[in-house]
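hey so i finally got around to running the thing on that chain from the lab meeting. sorry it took forever, my laptop kept dying and i had to restart like 3 times. anyway pasting the input first so we r on the same page abt which one it is
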Amino acid sequence: MSFFRNDAINRVNLQSGVQALAQNAGGVFVLVYLLRAGISVPHAFLAQAAIAAARFAVRPAMLPLAQWFGLQPLLLTGAVALAAQYLVLAEVDGLGAAFLIFLVVSALGEVIYFVNYNAYFAAMADGAQRGRQIAVGQALAAIAGVAAPVLGGWSLVAAGPRWTFACVALVQALSALPLIGLPNVAVLRSAPGAWRAARPAALLIAVDGWFDAAFLFVWQIALFLTLGASYAAYGGAMALAGLVGAAAGLMVGRHTDLGHGRRAVAIAYVATAAVVMLRAASLRSPALAALANALGGLAMPLLVPPLASAAQTLAKASPCVLRVMMATEGGWDLGCMGCCLCAAALAAAGAPPWLGVLLALPALAVGAPLLRTHYPRRTAAGSARPSARTTAPWSK
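ok and heres what got predicted. didnt touch it at all, straight out
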């Protein structure tokens, strides 16, 4: 399989797979652990909004750092820095100093890692294989999501948060090992037109940020409460979702690479909208909520390859891939922050949880037609007919 011939991308995907172990054993428990630590539901959503706002404020510092060091050292640093949030999380007990430190440490680790990860992947991936290469990482993440949530939930009950999150932090730090020795990617000191070129991708990912906040963060809290605030039940539900999603990624990525991007977008967004509505209807039944969560395991393998492929293709064609990814990450933060603030307001007003879950639908309605414009139409003969977005993405 030719899409495995890119050693740099293989190692980045391996890193993201190991990181997915940490994410699924610890990251998926962050918001629900805050609830058990005495943080109210509105404050939990405000915490996520604050992390997004801090990321947005700090991100401009990444440009001079990347110009000085290049992308690879910052990517490696970010992978290690993400571990610190788990060590601080275990000390959170209500709205105190540890809670504020957790917000700051989380924002710093995430801003260093994610923008450099996306920029490095966009710079090193192969254009004709990009969808499949992205899908490999999604498949590894889904596989990691099968057992890790069960282990995380069991450990929180049996060993407590300090041991659990310390082990998660260790796994996260070890994820940096595949990144050692990767080729560096330099960043230009000047790239005229790069920021204007970033607008289409930034808008696309801003909508995705709103969706992710509703589909992931709002749902995690709603599911946890529906399952009786049980770590074990919650971890089992997350593991079932990982099992469902493990087989979907490579198929969708290949579908996108073969020129069926518009069809992949339609399938992904229609299926995800159905899952969102099922989730909203399931919150009175723990069994039905667990089933809706499992079906949600299909969403990310379906959505991410066509979405990330479009954003990274736009970035690769721009004057500076890092500047475009900084703009897209900023867009994601704004979308996420907006949705989390809405969710916090709904929770504070006593609205039912299903209403917060449905916040994902407007993002799907806007995101699907927006993403489809980034893929060429196919002619009657079956060949791809280039669109303005693919031939000259940012031309007027």
